[in-house]
Request: fold
Amino acid sequence: MVPGRWQTPAGRLTLQSPNILLITIDQWRADCLGVAGHPLVHTPALDNLAADGVRFASHYTQASPCGPSRASLHTGTYLHTHRSVFNGTPLDARFTNIALEFRSAGYDPLLFGYTDTTVDPRTTTDDDPRLFTYEGHLPGFRVALPLPEDREAWYRWLESRGHDVSDRGRFLQGRTDVDVPPERGATWAPSPYATDETETAFVIGEILETLPNLCEPWFIHASILRPHPPFVVPDPYHDRYSPAEVPEPLPVGDTGHPFLDVLPEWGFTRAPEDELDRRQLQATYYGMVDEVDDQVGRLLNALDDTGLADHTAVVVTSDHGEMLGDHGLVSKMGFHDQAFHIPLIIRYPALNGPTGVVINDFTENVDVMPTLLDLGELPLPDQCQGASVRPFLEGRTPEIWRQATHWEFDFRVFARTVHLPLDDCHLAVHRDRGGKLVQFGGMPDLFFDLESDPGEQHPLTDHPAIVPCRSALAEWRPSFRDSPLVNLLATPNGMITLRDPQPAS
Reply:
């Protein structure tokens, strides 16, 4: 049974209620921050935010790809609870979420960007256009700027700036009128738009235009699409990093595991085979990271310049990471740390807590909703499975805190490629400081001794930590139940069921 929700009384806003700025950056690895010690990337804006706030260095998302991870972020629940397991799987309407809770308290939550939420089909009609896409919006938000992957609003804005947008596909790839130098790879060519015309610049610009017209306290969710592919970025970011200087990726391990055998066969998950192209992809990604950081810096500077920063809670995180060639993979599917270890930086000066602090305790994206509600002095819905990190922000260590982190990946949409029943197409991870257990529904488990094998190259079948890890994972992840929507999927042809891939009746 899905837990209910507490009814937050309306009119709880006070002059002391914080402004809320929740920034999600799509597909951002935890290590791609200057302040995290990356040898190349240049992220002064987020580095400064961390210096003025708190950085959580062992922060993990709970699912992948975008839809399920954001469902966990927005509801404070794990994948095995909300069961929105893939892009297009409906989110059960019985769950409250961060926008609904703040709206109940008197805020007007504004969304700039996207949440990748599919509506519960039981709450609408079969011809509802929201059933034909996985890129719907989370209930409770007022959509100030919709920016799904069709980028329609961005294209219209580019057109207003003099661009010919009749061939929209050209804006998703590098310019074809430049010669790629021999020391550069396939993704080197710059975009056909300028630095101040990126998708991120567009979103940030819209927020900056809106800010002066908002009554305090306000709630803004800035959902930034980059550095999500396609791997293209304007000059000068495209040329900022050389393929020759990017770090070597982690090699493919000696797993011999059926899941890892099939994962590269999904196509979009396989790293470029040409080494120069693979290195260039890394370099382009780092340039995209720099571009996003610069644009986020515009927004953070505006908060400082207008005096809003002192009473604004700023949270910056991601939905998931990016493999970036590690283990021979790109994208964010699977179980490796690179796809699930993400940044979390929080700044709220009104707490008068310590600044420049790095927290190494495990934190998770299910903690974001409880934290923001806590900062707003609002009750926590009983569905939430995360916990507020406010004690860390105040310089306190909670008496009880998690000693491990967990995440899940449900790959039932690929059931035919792995030759498993739908309900066996899942994995769950228990990760602590010493080891990592990957438990599959229909395949052998994997265990890595992270002390001797931090790169997850050599799985073990016999280790004293395996049994306690299995026990901990079983306690954390109950058996699936009450999941009526788990095999439904929103597609351009409408809602289908994976058990019979035809439009659902």
Remarks:
- The chain has one domain: 19-401.
